[in-house]
Design goal:
With about 475 residues, this protein is an alpha+beta fold. The protein folds into 3 domains: about 10-145, no CATH class; about 165-235, no CATH class; about 315-475, Histidine kinase-like ATPase, C-terminal domain (Heat Shock Protein 90), CATH 3.30.565.10. It has helices at about 10-35, 50-70, 75-100, 110-120, 125-145, 165-170, 180-185, 185-195, 235-275, 285-310, 320-335, 360-375, 415, 435-445, 470-475; strands spanning about 205, 210-220, 225-235, 320, 345-350, 355, 385-390, 400-405, 450-455, 460-465. The strands form 3 sheets. The chain has a 5-stranded mixed β-sheet, with helices on one face. Strands 1-2-3 form a 3-stranded antiparallel β-sheet. A two-stranded antiparallel ribbon has the order 4-6. A hairpin with a 5-residue loop joins strand 9 (about 450-455) and strand 10 (about 460-465). Helix 2 runs antiparallel to helix 3, helix 3 (about 75-100) packs antiparallel against helix 4 and helix 4 (about 110-120) runs antiparallel to helix 5. The radius of gyration is 36 Å and the shape is elongated. It starts with 7 loop residues before the first helix and ends with a helix. About 25% of the residues are buried. It is an enzyme of class 2 (transferase).
Length: about 475
């Protein structure tokens, strides 16, 4: 076999071809590894995952074959350079198409490909490669625009989704769910309904498994309205905002009450006290004066409760470990109510019981429930107070349940519907605002308060509180 002499010019021509082929192999292998292991951006290959994967395999195979042919120097240098430049342009165009077109950013890979073509090919061939790349991208964008595939396909492909949406939908961030119907069939149904009737401003999506109710808004994007922005909002957070506005209005009303009622009420109470000390009062007049004093004190307590509610600022929420917090509160309850023979029990799960709430608000809710139990939840047999404090977080739930349970006679069925109404009370000495304020504060912190009858006798007031997200808790 004759010996092949390699001139300096040949070495300069073949060496850049081999170097750029190594770059080609690196790009193909890197994209393939990132995409297969879920580390690539979500936009890569989202429009046509199959085409994206096949193109990467072919591109990688082209690079491996080029390693051998460049080593053998067969076929000719010009033929290999032209074929590889054509393969680069086609591969990058297909990768960009399967990722959504020129907005995906994949087309940037054409810059080094055309630059290499300018170094390795003749001037005319390099100009042809650049023109072909530009035309292919232009035709691809026109096709995507006319067919409507850029943002919506038969499977309503997801272009971008943030971490908050992943969590609200109950999925792990970065999961390979490229279609809306795979992410949430219920959300996909609402999306189709909106496409048929886009007049409705928003829709509601209930997620019973997570204890959430989401408010969904669809907004078309772009002049061609092919893209759609889907906004997910937690109804509990919206309710908290409404609650803040309502409390602000109540605060203004309470200021008027304090000025208009408190001063005359103080004068009435003071006059009744002076009248009670008069030596000329008979028994009947003394009883009437006592009624004035008692009812005046009750009205004063009502004003105090309203003012206390109106002064509540927006909650200063922070993570709060209910295991530690409830143990501390139970010790204080024993100190306050232990002299009355109160017996306490604690039932705390081993699960993560870190809630997001205002500790001051939670303390007011807790003590309002304890005072209510002390007044109405004692056993009829011996008058003792048996309280159970429990906290539980169901698997996968985003709320923690905190229970205050007594063993009293319970609440009559006809009264349950009115328990949390303001100024409703069955006691002559009560104001009817304790449970109402507890319920309002619970709602202000993104939760809610409900009453659950105990079958064996007694009452259970259950407070639902937002739990710390798993990622935040682990951090």
């Amino acid at each position: 076999m004759p010996k092949i002499e390699r001139t300096g010019e040949e070495r300069q021509s073949w060496q850049p071809l081999r170097l750029f082929n190594l770059y080609r192999l690196f790009v193909a292998a890197l994209f393939l590894a990132l995409w297969r292991f879920g580390l690539a951006p979500q936009s890569l290959g989202h429009l046509s995952p199959g085409l994206f994967f096949i193109t990467l395999l072919v591109y990688l195979g082209l690079g491996l074959i080029a390693l051998v042919t460049a080593r053998l120097r067969w076929p000719s240098f010009q033929l290999q350079a032209n074929l590889l430049a054509t393969g680069d342009v086609l591969a990058v165009t297909l990768l960009a198409h399967s990722s959504g077109g020129v907005t995906s950013g994949v087309e940037v890979l054409l810059i080094p490909a055309i630059g290499a073509a300018g170094l390795l090919l003749s001037e005319l061939s390099a100009l042809f490669a650049a023109a072909a790349a530009s035309l292919l991208l232009l035709f691809d964008q026109i096709y995507l625009h006319l067919s409507g595939l850029q943002e919506q396909t038969a499977y309503t492909q997801i272009r971008l989704i943030n971490d908050a949406a992943w969590q609200l939908m109950g999925h792990v961030s970065g999961a390979h769910l490229d279609a809306l119907e795979r992410l949430s069939p219920a959300l996909f149904t609402l999306f189709r309904q909106w496409q048929s009737n886009p007049d409705a401003l928003h829709r509601t999506l209930a997620l019973p498994g997570q204890g959430l109710e989401l408010r969904i808004r669809f907004t078309p994007l772009g002049l061609d309205r092919q893209a759609t922005l889907i906004m997910l909002e937690d109804q509990a957070e919206l309710a908290a905002q409404v609650q803040s506005a309502k409390l602000a209005s109540l605060g203004r009303l309470a200021a008027s009450i304090a000025h208009e009622i408190r001063n005359p009420l103080s004068a009435i109470s003071h006059a009744a006290q002076l009248l009670r000390e008069s030596p000329s009062l008979n028994a009947q007049d003394t009883r009437l004066v006592e009624i004035i004093r008692t009812q005046g004190a009750r009205m004063d307590a009502i004003v105090d409760d309203v003012l206390r509610l109106s002064r509540k600022d927006p909650p200063r929420t922070r993570p709060l470990d209910l295991k530690i917090w409830l143990q501390t509160q139970a010790s204080e309850v024993r100190t306050r109510l232990g002299e009355d023979g109160a017996e306490l029990r604690l039932h705390l799960d081993d699960t993560n019981l870190v809630a997001i709430c205002d500790e001051g608000h939670l303390a007011q809710i807790f003590w309002s429930l304890c005072e209510n139990a002390s007044r109405y939840g004692r056993r009829k047999s011996d008058g003792r107070l048996l309280l159970t404090f429990a906290a539980h977080r169901p698997p996968g739930a985003q709320q923690i349940r905190m229970d205050v349970i007594d063993q009293g006679s319970g609440v009559p069925p006809e009264v349950i519907a009115h328990l949390f109404e303001p100024f409703f009370t069955t006691s002559a000495s009560g104001t009817g605002l304790g449970l109402y304020i507890a319920s309002e504060l619970c709602a202000l912190n993104g939760g809610h308060l409900e009453y659950i009858p105990v079958p064996s006798g007694g009452s259970c007031f259950r407070c639902f509180l937002p739990a710390v997200r798993r990622s935040a808790a682990s951090a």
